[in-house]
Amino acid sequence: MAQTKKSVSEFIQDAFCPMVAVLCSYDAETICRKNNLTFAELIQPFCRLPSEVGYRDPSNTLIVLKNLRLEIKDYNSLPPQNTLAKKLLNDCVFNALTNGSTSNEREIDTEQYQLHIQNTTPWFDAWRDCFLRIAYSGDHEFLKNYLACIMVVSTSHLDPIDAFSKLVQLQNQQQQQIPAKLPKWFMTNIYKYFVLLHDVTEGEESKAISVFGDLKQQYGAGNCHLLQINSKRPGQTNSDTSETTNMPDPWRLYVKQSSTSNQQQSQTISKRDGSMSDSLSNLTELIDQELNLNTSITHPLGLFDTSSSDLSSITTTTVDEGYDGSSITTTSTIIHGACLTLSDHDRIHVFMHEFVTKGLLLWVESNLKTFNEQITSRRGITKLFSMPKKLFGGNASTVKNQPTISSTNLTNDSMEIVFRRAGDLAFLFQHYELAYTNYYAAKRDLSREQAPAFYAGVLEMCCLAIFMQESSATRTYPTQYMDEAIEIYAAVCRLPIFATRCVLMSTEILKSKEAYDQAVQQFLKLSQEDSDLRGALFLEQASYCFLNYRPSYIRKYAFYMVIAGHRYLKAGQRLHALRCYNDVLKIYGRPNWSLALDHINFTLGKQSALLNQSNDALRSFNALFAPNNHIQSAQQQINFFKEYLTVFNQLTSFETLLPELPVPLVDNTTIKILLAGHQQPRMGGHVSNCNDFDFEESRDIWSDLERTITAHDRRASGTRTQINLFTSRTHNQQHPIAVAKETIRVEFYVRNTLQVPLLLSEVQILWKFSLGGWKRRASTSTDSNEEWKEYTNDTLTQQTDQFVECDVLSDCVIFPNDTSKIELSLRPRRSGYLTILGICYRLNILVQNTSEQTNWPYGIMGKTLFHVRGIRLNSNRRERLNVVHGVDKRLEIQVVSEAPFLHIEFSPMPAAMFCGEIQSCLIHLINPSSMHSITRVRLVTSQPNLITISSIDEDSLLTYTNESKSIWNHSLNQQSSILTLVSHHHPLLANSTRTIRLWLHASHLAGEMNIDFLFLYESDVFQQPLRHRTVKHSSLFIITHSIGFQTQSQLTGLGELILPVQIENSMAAQNTLSINVQQLSCISKQWDIKNLSPISQNSIRYGENLSLLFKCKHQENHDDSLQMKHISLVNDETINDKYVDISKNPIGDFFRHFISNIDHTHSTHRHKTPNPLSIPPISLILLWQIPLSNQIGQLEIRHGLHMISPSIEMSHTQQEANDIIQYELIYSPIVEHKFTKILFLPVRLKLFNRTKEKLQLQLQLIRSSLDNDPLLSSCCLWAGMTEQFINLSAYEHLSLNLRACFFKPGFYSLGNISLTIIDKINSTTIPIKSNTHNYFVDIRTLL
C-alpha cells in the first residue's frame, strides 16, 4: 500500500506549505537563463530551510518552525486545465510502473493462502504527489493563495528602482482588478520582498552597491536583498569539464522537461514496448473515452475572467503520449546551474534564510496579531447579536440538505473569513493549536451562515490541526469531522477535488493509527464512476488495507483488487490492470472460484494481447480451458474459444516456433512407443501380433525366452534384451533402438475437457533429431558442429528434406468430455538420435450454428508436449518415504543404420482345438530387404513340448505300416527347446521366402492355452547395440474337452500285468460328434502288450465310454531295444497298412516331449549337447479322430493323440530290493481239519529274478508273534529246513515247496518268512521287505 519515507506529519506539512510568487523583470530572467533556469526554478531547491526558525504568536509565545518549506512559483504560472491535469495524473501513474519502479514484498501466510504481496505502491504515491501539486485553490480557503511576492530586478537594468516600482504597480493592479484573475493572493496587504540580482562576471559591483543602497532606503533594509550569482563565465564552464561534472544539480527534480525531448523519448519507448503503441492522433478519442471528458465538468478557473492571452502558454503546450493515453517523463540532458559555483549556492541559501527570518516571519507575526485583535473586538458584538437569533430564529437545516453551491455571499471582512484566514496562516506556519482554535470558531459560525464549502473546509482543517498538534497522541482523532467534510464536498458542493484531498490526508492519518477499517470506508466513498483512475487507485488502496486487518481479509483484498483492475482498464491503464489481475490470480486459483478465475483469465488474455504480450496472453487464455473447470457452459466456451482463436492468430503471425495449446489434454500415462510398423499379409496368412499396441511385451517370459537362445551365444554376449514396445509399465532406463527407414508408431489418448467438440487436423508427431547425440558437447570444428546440430519440425514454416518423415492424420473429432485414441507414425531416414517431443496439430472446434460458421476464425497451429516419467522407485527408505520416479527414456530413440527385417506370417493358424488334437500351420519367413540376407533364424516357445517343426513337404500327420510290432529306430536323446529354422549353411537371402510347417499338439487340459513364439534372427550387418533382432508372437487357443484316457496297472502274477483302459467322451456340451479311437500303441523295453477285449465298436458318442482290457507280459530283451506294439481298434480287416507308425514325426517328436517331461532328473532347457532320456517301463499312445463338418459343409477329420505312462504297481508294496526279486506264496486260504493229529499245510514259494545278473538269496523260516493284532491267533510254524541258500540265474523262475504246521484251529499269518540278498563283493546282505504279511489262512475244525 501507499508508503512514504516521510512521516504523516511531514507529509501534511509539505502538502500545505506557504506559497510565494516571483515577479521578475526581463533583464533578471536573462541572467538566470545562462543557467537554463528561471529565477523561480533557480531558488526552488533551496526553499526548505535546513535550520529551525521561529516567531512569536499573539500571546508572545515562541513558535519554532521545523523543516519549513516554501513553495515558490512564477507570477505568470497557472494551474493546468482539466484535460491537461488528467493527462498529467495518468502520466505519473503510468511512469511509476514503466520506469522500473520496484518495491519490496511481504509474505502473508495463512492456513489457506501463502502470498507474496507488494509492500509499496509507488504509482499511488506519484499520483498523490502530482494531485496535491496541481490542485487549485478554492474560494473557501486560503492555503494555496500567495502570501508574498518576491520582485526581482537585475543591476544591468538602466533604472532598477523604476523597474521595481513598475513591478509593484503591476502586482497591485492585478490584485485589485474586478473580476479577479489568477494568481490569487492571501490578503490585500501581502508581503513584498525586493531582490536586486547581480551578475558577478558581467555587472559592476559598485553600481550594484549603489542601487542596493537606494533600494533599502525606499523599501526598508529588511525587505531588500542583494543576490550575486554567475561567478563563472560560460566559456570557463565549458572548458572545465571535471568541475562541471562534480558540481551538484539539485534542479533536476524541479525543472519541467521541454516538449521536444518528451516527444523524442516517447517515440523511442513506443518502438521498444508494444504497450505504448497508440499514436498521437488517437489522443482526442482516448481522452473522450478513458478520461471521461464527455461529461461537463466546470473548471475552477472558470470562476475568473482569464483572457485567451493568459492561457496561450497552456493551450499550445505539446503533450507527449506514450501509453494508452499517457505521457512519458524523461530525464533531461540539459546542464543546469552551469555558471554557478558553490559560493553562489551558499548565497542563495543566505538569501532564502534572510527572506524568511527578516521579512516573512515578521509579516506573519504582525498579521496574526491583527487577526487576533479583530477577532477579540468582534467577539462581543457577535454574542450580542446571536441572542435574538436564538430566541426568534429557527433551527438551521443540516448540512446534508444544503443547496448545491460552491460559492458564498461572505465578504472579505466578515468574521468567518477572518477566522479562516487566521487559521490558515497559523496552520501554514505550524501554529496548530491557534489554527484549531480559529477553525473550530469558524465551524461554529459557518454552520449558521449556510456556507457548505466553507463549513466542509473548516471541518477538514480541524481534523488536520488536531492531528498535527503535539498532544494529538492523547486526543481522539475526530473521524466524523472528516467523513462529514468528504460528504459535503462530494455530494453537496460537487467539489470532488477537495473531497479527494480530504481522503488522501485522512487515510494517511488513519493508517498511522492502524484504523484500517475507517480508512477503507473513506477510500470507498470516492471510488465512484466520475473518475476511473482515482477510483482504481482508491479501490487498490482499500484492498491493501484489508490485508492489514488482523487477521487479514484475503478474499476482500482479492475482490476489491479485481474491481480496481476493472477501473484501471476504463482509465486506460492496461499495465496496472494486468498487475491487479495477476496479483489475485493465485487467490482465485483455488477450487470453487471458477467463474471469478474465468473472468480474470479472460481479461488478462485480452488485455495482454492488446499490449502485444503474447506469452502472457496465451498463458491466460490457456487457463480458461483448464481440465477442472466444469461450470462453463458450451456457449461460453464457444465465445472464449472464438476470442482465443482471434487473439492467437494475431499474436503468432510473426512467430516461428509452435505455441503450446491448452486442449486437448494428453494422458501421458498412455503413451506407447512401438518400434514396428503396420504389416500386411503377403502370403494370405496372419502376421505377428507383436506389431500391436496391446501386445504384452513387458512379461518376463519374453526376456526368459530370449536369454534361452543367447545364453550360450558368444556373439550375443553383452547384448541387452530386445524390446519393441515401450509403455509406462516397462523399464525405460535405456534408450530404444530403432532402425533407419523403419516405422516408429506412437499411440496415446487425448481427452476433451470442453463442452464443445474439438476438431484436430494436420496431426503429426513433433520431433527433434541430432546426428551426434542428445547432449551437445563443446567443439570448435565444423564437422562436429554439423554433427551436433539439432533439427526439428517445431516451426510454423514449411520445411523440406527433413531427416524424419511423419505421417499426417488429416482429421480427428473429439466429442465433449470424451477420450479418443490417436495413433501416429514416423520414419527416420538415417541413423542418429531421435527425440519425440509431442504432437503438433491445427486446433478448432465444430460450430453447429450456421451463422457462426461464416465468420468463424481459421484454426490455429500449435503443439502439445509429452511429459513422461519412470516407474516409482521403492528400493530404499528415502524412495519409500518420498515420491521418487526413475528415468524414462522411451521418447529418446537411438536410430541405427538400415538393417534387414524379418517378416513372419502364420497360415493357417487354428483358433480352437480339442484336447490332445494335433494340427499344423505354415510359417512363412520373408526377407523383404533388397540388399542384406538373414543368416540364422531360431525359434523358442513358452511350451516347447507342444510344438515341433518339419519341412513343408511333410504335410501328413500319420504314417501307416503293416507291421504291428517293430523296433524304435530313432534317437530318444534330450531335445533342445531351441528350433533352428534358418542356419548359416542355408541363409535366407534378400527378397526371398522360406516356408516351414509347424505342428501343434493341444494340451490335455481344457480352457485357454497360450503359446508365446520368439523368433531370433541374425545378419552379418548387425552390429552393437543391435546384434540380433526378434519377432514375437503370442497365440491363444481355445481348448475344448475331447476324450478321457486313463489306466491303472494290476499285477496278476510273476511278470504279468493287467491294464484296464477307460476311454470316455468327455465333451462338455451335448452334441452329435463321435470320437473314433484308432489305435493303441505300447512302447516298452521289457513288456509285451496283448488285447484281451473284443474289437467291436470304436466310436464313442457324447456321454459314452469304452472299456478295454490289456495284458502285459514281461519279456527278455537282450539288445535293450525299445519295442513298439500297435493294436488297431478299428474293426475293418480289409484295410491294409492299418497300423500307424508312431516313431515317425511329428508323433515321434511329441513322444520325446512326453518322456522328457516325465524325466525330472534332466532340465528341458539350456542343454548344448543331447542327453539320453530315461524311458518309462510302459508308455501307451492312443490315436483318435473326430469327423466333423467345417464352415463350408465339408467333412473334416480331426486327429488327436493322448499319451500316458502307467505306474507298474504290484499287489504288495515294494522297495528297491523288491524291484530285483519278485516272489509270491501259493496255498489254500481255507482248510478244514480234524485235530486228531497235526495239520501240515503245503505252501509253494515262487521266486523270480528280474535282473540280468545271478543272485544268491538267503531264506529263513522264523517264528514271530503278532500279538498286537487281537484277531490273529498266531503265526504258523514251519516244518523242515528253516534256513537255506538259493542261487537264481538271470530272469530265472524258481519254485520251493514248504510245509506249515498247525495244532489247533484259528486265523494264522504266513508272514514269518525272511529273504535277503547276499552281496559277496561288499560282504553285506540286502534285506527284502516281506511282501507276504498279507497272506493269511483260516484253519477250521472239520465236524
The low-confidence parts are 237-245, 257-332, 393-407, 776-783, 1160-1168, 1210-1215, 1265-1271
Roughly what fraction of the amino acids lie in strands? 25-35%
Helix content: 25-40%
Biggest β-sheet strands, sense, barrel: 7 strands, mixed
What value does the Rg take, in angstroms?
58 Å
- Strand tally is 56
Through-space gap between termini? 133 Å
Question: Based on CA inertia axes, which overall geometry fits?
Answer: elongated
| Structural class by secondary-structure content | alpha+beta
Walkthrough of the structure:
It is a single chain. The chain has 1343 residues and is α+β, with helices and mostly antiparallel strands. The chain folds into 7 domains: 17-97 and 130-357, no CATH class; 404-515, no CATH class; 588-655, no CATH class; 665-676 and 724-896, no CATH class; 903-943 and 973-1039, Immunoglobulin-like; 1043-1204, no CATH class; 1221-1341, Immunoglobulins (Immunoglobulin-like). Strands 13, 15, 16, 18, 20, 21 and 22 form a 7-stranded mixed β-sheet that branches. Strands 29, 37, 39, 41, 43 and 44 form a 6-stranded antiparallel β-sheet that branches. A hairpin with a 4-residue loop joins strand 5 and strand 6 (114-118). Residues 237-245, 257-332, 393-407, 776-783, 1160-1168, 1210-1215 and 1265-1271 have low confidence and may be disordered.
